[in-house]
Amino acid sequence: MSISKTRQKLVDVARQLFAKNGLENTTMNDIAQQSGKGRRTLYTYFKSKDEVYFAVIESELERLSDKMDEVAAKRTSPQDKILELIYTHLDSIKETVMRNGNLRAAFFRNIWMVEKVRKNFDEAEIELFRKVYADGKAEGEFDIDNVELVADITHYCIKGLEVPYIYGRLGHGMTPERSKPLVAKFVYGALGKLK
């Protein structure tokens, strides 16, 4: 097994154990045993459980980043891309948190740890928004004076909506089908949609 496959297996096993047992109730020994690797192999890749936890968060963020990149690469209008990026972000974060069971509490309790690991993802996401906004401005779809600022604001607004969205407090149980036209109206109004 290659180095990267071994490391990824350790991260996958750790995520499953953290989700099932919680971060506090999972030991390095548990991860080594469950992965079929020795403790020596585990410690070759990770010095501590915190490092494994960071790697789990990074892995989850990579999945989200890949989904965002797929949306950005679609041949759709910038208007449609912005909406799809927003919903992809929120849906993927919610799915990630819900899928990870007992790890959910650690995500919220150790938000500073998550934020530290999340920095690269956040920068990449802001860059995606900048590109889509610049394209929309060039095509005359958006009336934006400062693309960089609008991308930053969009990213931080979406980030601020994550927890209410995860817990179903946003829109009080509205389905995405019912909420998308309202979100579109809000977003397009803010962006100065010209059509």
Tell me about this structure.
It is a single chain. By secondary structure, the chain is mainly alpha-helical. About 80% of the residues lie in helices and about 0% in strands. The longest helix has 28 residues.
Number of helices: 9
Q: How many strand segments?
A: 0
SS class: mainly alpha
End-to-end distance: 54 Å
Cα-atom radius of gyration: 19 Å
Global morphology: elongated
H-E string: HHHHHHHHH
- Mean pLDDT score, rounded? 86
Largest sheet: none
State the helicity in percent bands. over 70%
Low-confidence stretches: none
Task: Briefly say what this structure is.
The chain is mainly alpha-helical.
SSE layout and pairings?
Blueprint: H1 3-21, H2 28-35, H3 39-45, H4 49-73, H5 78-99, H6 103-109, H7 111-138, H8 147-166, H9 176-191
Helix pairs in contact: 1-2, 1-4, 4-5, 4-7, 5-7, 5-8, 5-9, 6-7, 7-8
Give me some keywords for this one.
195 residues, mainly alpha, 9 helices, elongated
